[in-house]
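FAQ: What does a ligand-bound record look like?

Like this one, built around oxa(dethia)-CoA:
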Amino acid sequence: MTAVVTGIGGFLPPRRVTNDDLSRTLDTTDEWIRTRTGIRERRVVSGGLSTGALAVEAGRRALRSAGTGGVDAVVVATTSPERLCPAVAPEVAFRLGLGTVAAFDLTSACSGFLYGLATAAGLIGSGTADRVLFIGAEAFTTLVNPEDRATAPIFGDGAGAVVLRRGEPDEPGALGPFDLGSDGALADLLAIPAGGARQRSADGGPGHGAVPAADWYLRMEGRPLYTQAVERMTQSARAVLKRADRSVADLDWLAGHQANLRILQAVAEELELPEERVAVNIDRVGNTLSASVPLLLNDYAARGELRAGQRVLLSAFGAGLSWGSTVLVWPGIPAEPVG
Ligand code: UT7
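The answer part, i.e. the structure of the complex:
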């Protein structure tokens, strides 16, 4: 039994923030952000929109693309959950009218989509579910310090979703082997110190001791992360191609996590993959963590650039550290523009 992609959807919040908008309040420029990251603008939640609502919209579109009104499980990958408890997935399932199906969240930052795909495929492979709605949804800009020029320009909000069904390994859309990995020794390179159990117990609990304001926000060491991202994504791509008995020459597209255009270009160079086969939408959305790869796939499919029968390598890297890759032949499924 193999998990097969049978629907795709995406959703972006309407509020658009350009680099020039940011440079009005931050010590930065459009030129710096564009040349160092490839980002021109990002979407940001506003007006009460949050992770759950983004997930519901992307999920609705993925179900429509799959032509189905029902699934056996809903999995949401997010690093910006609505609340510490409970998971948002049950609420998303409820709001989509999917009934009392299995529903849970999964956290793996920017590699959340790859870890989630493997998990959802596992639910199908084990016979637990025939159909799974899997959504990567993030309102991560709410966790980034708006006064920190090192992180505020990089992230954006959004959600991307796929529906997986049980199928055969040689069908278009069948997920290939996975390569997943982590390195917890480097966990502090990208972390939000406060808000979890460690910070609470160190404080003696709510109301005991003040948490420095900066600790509620993301801290990132960009340079070492950059090096790790290039190394890990390259190694992971090579590992999964080997497992799938494929070579770089067989690939039509690299759909890599959109953290930095220069990272994607460096990975392509390491792999000797021509740059025109690197899918890119970071210019319009920024880094949307676990929503990044499905938003990219949806975007390319909706514009007819990612076509049925093309072979695509999905690869992601992020906090944890964590990374993952898989391959698939793109299926002939409808995709709506996300706007
Ligand atoms: O999502 C997965 C995990 N995340 C990543 O993979 C991120 C990986 N890292 C990166 O993408 C890059 O390291 C960044 C885009 C975050 C930063 O680019 P960089 O080329 O590594 O810049 P830097 O942090 O080394 O900073 C270079 C200079 C510094 O000034 P000095 O010390 O040379 O005078 C920074 O203070 O650029 C300065 N700088 C800025 N200047 C204008 C940093 N941020 C900004 C800014 N605007 N927004």
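Follow-up question: can I read anything off the structure? Yes, for example: The longest strand covers residues 2-11.
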